């Protein structure tokens, strides 16, 4: 009985850590999106300003929502991981529909760097 309770506690702690890590990753995605938005405002990219000014705030808000949910939900609810993944996937879909090939390649740079092994 005690051993079973210990296993459940370990699963809860692991899920809480995973939720916090996912929220941190979506925060980093929001930072990358804001950087791309600023670079587009500086005419570094050639995406239509009106389209970018509509898509980027929506994407950034969806990327920042998991951080808020983790703080409110204390990071240990089971439905939180599904809500965070939905926010991330909808945010990516919005931004990819508005971006040119230049900015889609900019999305791939952090992914490539994160896959770099030690």
Short overview:
With 118 residues, this protein is mainly alpha-helical.
Order of helices and strands: HHHH
Cα-atom Rg, whole angstroms?
Answer: 17 Å
| Helix percentage | over 70%
Spans where pLDDT lies below 50 across 5 or more residues? none
Helix-and-strand structural type: mainly alpha
The description of the largest β-sheet is: none
Q: For the terminal residues, how far apart are their CA atoms? A: 41 Å
Counted beta strands: 0
Average pLDDT reading:
78
Strand content: under 5%
Q: With helices defined by DSSP (H or I, 4 residues minimum), what is the helix count? A: 4
> Quick one: overall form?
elongated
Provide structural commentary.
This protein has helices at residues 2-41, 49-73, 78-98, 101-114. The protein is elongated, with a radius of gyration of 17 Å. It is an all-alpha fold. Helix 1 (2-41) packs antiparallel against helix 2 (49-73), helix 1 (2-41) packs parallel to helix 3 (78-98) and helix 2 (49-73) packs antiparallel against helix 3. The termini are far apart.
